[in-house]
Amino acid sequence: MTSSTSTKTAAAEATPRRRRRGHNFTTTDRAVLSGLVGGPTILHILLVWIPALCTVALSFTYWDGIGGLNEIHWVGLKNYQQIFTIYQDFKPAVRNNVLWLGFFAIIATPLGVILAYYIDKELKGTKFFQTAFYLPMVLSLAVTGIVWDYIFRTNGFVNSVMGNTDAQTAVSWFGDPHKNIWIVLIIASWRHIGYVMLLYLAGMKSVDPSLHEAAAIDGATSWYTFRKVIFPSLRPVNVIIIVITVIDSLRAFDLVYIINRGRNGLQLLGVLVYDNIFGEATRIGWGSALATILFALSIIPIMLYLYQTFKKDK
Prior knowledge:
Elements: H1 2-22, H2 27-58, E1 61-62, E2 73-74, H3 78-85, H4 90-120, H5 126-138, H6 141-152, H7 157-162, H8 180-205, H9 209-217, H10 222-233, H11 235-250, H12 254-260, H13 269-278, H14 284-313
Antiparallel strand pairs: 1-2
Helix pairs in contact: 2-14, 4-8, 4-11, 5-8, 6-12, 8-11, 9-10, 11-14, 13-14
């Protein structure tokens, strides 16, 4: 009986205490909090979710972008059917996006990991190499495309060094549809490697030093310690790198559009979306359908990233 009474008394004391804590916020505090939380939320809904939902809705319609909303006609799944059957650029675009992902996953990302491993050893000139490898990340992909376009164009830097100054002897580095994608992948990797290196360097700096000491006592080499002890402990970084690699390969646009407008063997899904919405033959329905397909392909790594983030917070 006494225990029950004391429990009720404690609960009764706790309730007013919680109420008093809530009353500590003034009207100004509530207004500021509402603005800090509500403002970004409203902007996010207006600028992200409403356009995304409208894009999905437009993917089931036909509209050439001319005239008012009364010119929009519902066609159902016809846009998707035509994209998968008669749109000749769709399959090459998907193939190039998958190739982009594979190249980043198999070549560019491992190179970034290896660079992070050696730079973390703090060898002579480490700061210089760290800055040099990360420098491309400061540049946007559009600027990167302009820089490399001037290097590889027919009257660019490489042909000038080779002595091919006239149109007949100049090598057209972006003229072969079978080789273009590989050259662009090398250029894109120039930027991606530095990003991966920086993320792994940050993760390796946070690893418990006792892991290195325990491995050294057991006689393990530094490379074996990294592969078997350090790298597995960087699981959150690994997940983030995987997500970033997938997203970068799907949203690739700037680089190929700067070089040759995404044509001649450089078709990508992002370029097809832009061409159908803003190109000469305006097909809002097709562009919206392609954007919806791109969104569906990218939502999986985004959900993995959010899951990893919330799991880490817990």
